[in-house]
Specification:
Length: about 450
């Protein structure tokens, strides 16, 4: 027998994207229902301070307690080895379970569920067919759906952009040299490696390869991984000579993709279900959490302020497109720094125009225009400064409203003093000075 329930907002998935948004919505007084199952396989991933800040902002104490101190980070790229800012290392099943617990503590309604099918019967008419842990069938009717089931989530529309797929092979080892907890990145002829070494000598090495490299090994993932390990001098020196595999090689697909239909009137896509970036940037979890912080005001506006719904949809879709394009460009610039194997298929394919996948119109000169922005938890149209490098606009510098400062400069007495401007804008003179300098750099003052 199938049971039917009703929920105004259903979030599909149980990863960082779904859980961060659920907490943000709950804090804003909404009651979303999370329908998700835990990720089926373990994975070790790195995350930055900015993700930790996102967890802090959302009060995710259980997740934060897993992070401990950042690990030392070493990179051997383009023949140069450098030590960089540290990163946190987490086991993803543990992190996702911690976020689930944080969502529970925040009062979110959580339903362990395997979502089987999602029907969209016109605006506000979603039916989610799901199974509980005992295989019981259920239907939840929802007015708004957030698709956050990761990179494998069903599409709502054709992809806006998709880069060539890559494959990641990850293997765990024991017997590595004991020492400081370290993460490392190293480029080689057939791709690049990211790995971790803990203080007890346990290590993980993840190789990112062109799919043809795997084919060249007849699909034997252990052999392909072992061959890659032989091409990593920095990794070999760091891990030492007594390394022993602990289990087989796990495979994960990789593809930078911007999905279509990121924001509908009654639904949005979030995290990897909206866009996925190259793991070289290590930004996947950051995008999930920062995307959730942008999705919350978008969703509230769509539900509570129909007059601003169009602005909300524009805001969310433009953000996804621009962030995706920025990540692609950053990854491409990083790959371009490695020039030692220009004819190797991995490097050749990467340098062949990935950044052109999503053209984002860049303002040629600074100008003032109305654009959707976040204000008090909702999306509204406000005047901002569009400038080269800032296609969605900048509204405040040091708390000073830039268009208001621009108006004050144009409309007031010639050469006003900083004190006069500060009094007019109700901001301290130091802040107004900073904002003025920014406008001057854009040739708007
Ligand atoms: C090889 C590789 C290495 C990476 N390394 C890093 C890294 O070091 N740092 C980093 O920040 N990011 C990394 N990423 C990216 C990161 O894993 C993702 O960007 C991030 O997990 C996205 O979070 P999400 O919540 O959108 O999706 P996911 O974390 O994929 O969560 C999706 C959730 O939906 C659930 N789900 C799926 N299908 C169903 C269903 N039918 N019913 C119910 N629930 C379902 C899943 O179980 C899971 O809980 C890496 C990715 C890859 C492929």
């Amino acid at each position: 027998m199938t049971t039917t329930t009703v929920s105004p907002i259903a979030l599909l998935g149980a990863g960082p994207a779904a859980l961060a948004l659920a907490i943000a919505l709950r804090r804003a007084g909404l009651q979303p229902l999370v329908l998700g199952r835990p990720r089926p396989r373990p994975a070790t991933e790195g995350l930055s301070w900015r993700v930790a800040q996102g967890f802090e902002q959302l009060g995710c104490r259980t997740a934060l307690s897993l992070l401990k101190a950042p690990w030392r980070r070493v990179s051997a790229w383009a023949g140069t080895t450098v030590e960089m800012n540290g990163e946190f290392v987490v086991e993803r099943q543990a992190l996702d379970a911690a976020l689930w617990e944080d969502a529970r503590r925040a009062g979110v309604a959580l339903q362990p569920a395997l979502v089987r099918e999602v029907e969209h019967r016109g605006e506000g008419g979603w039916r989610i067919h799901w199974e509980d842990a005992r295989g019981g069938s259920h239907v939840t009717r929802a007015g708004f759906v957030v698709e956050s089931r990761g990179r494998g989530a069903p599409k709502w529309a054709a992809d806006q952009a998709a880069a060539a797929p890559r494959v990641a092979l990850c293997r765990a080892f024991t017997g590595a040299r004991r020492g400081r907890r370290t993460t490392f990145t190293e480029s080689f002829e057939h791709g690049w490696a990211w790995g971790t070494l803990d203080a007890a000598g346990a290590a993980q090495v993840q190789l990112v390869l062109h799919p043809d490299t795997l084919k060249a090994h007849g699909g034997d993932v252990d052999a392909a991984h072992a061959a890659g390990m032989h091409q990593l001098p920095m990794c070999t020196a760091l891990l030492g000579p007594s390394l022993q595999p602990a289990g087989g090689t796990a495979v994960r697909g990789i593809q930078a993709v911007l999905r279509g239909g990121t924001c509908l009137e009654d639904g949005l896509r979030l995290g990897d279900a909206a866009y996925g970036s190259d793991p070289l940037s290590g930004h996947g979890m950051f995008e999930a959490v920062s995307g959730a912080l942008a999705a919350a005001p978008t969703l509230r506006t769509l539900l509570e302020r129909p007059a601003d719904a169009q602005a909300a949809r524009e805001f969310y879709a433009a953000r996804a497109r621009e962030v995706f394009a920025q990540r692609l460009q950053a990854a491409r610039a990083h790959y371009a720094g490695e020039t030692r194997w220009p004819h190797a298929p991995f490097w050749q394919a990467l340098q062949a125009g990935a950044a052109a996948l999503v053209p984002v119109a860049q303002p040629q000169a600074a100008a003032i225009a109305a654009r959707p922005v976040v204000e008090n938890g909702f999306i509204v149209r406000r005047r901002v400064v569009l400038a080269p490098g800032h296609p969605r606009g900048v509204r405040f510098i040091d708390g000073v409203d830039l268009p208001a400062l621009h108006d004050a400069l144009r409309g007031g007495a010639p050469d006003p003093s900083m004190e006069t401007l500060a009094a007019q804008l109700h901001q301290p003179p130091g802040a107004v000075h900073g904002a003025l300098r920014w406008l001057q750099a854009q040739r708007l003052a």
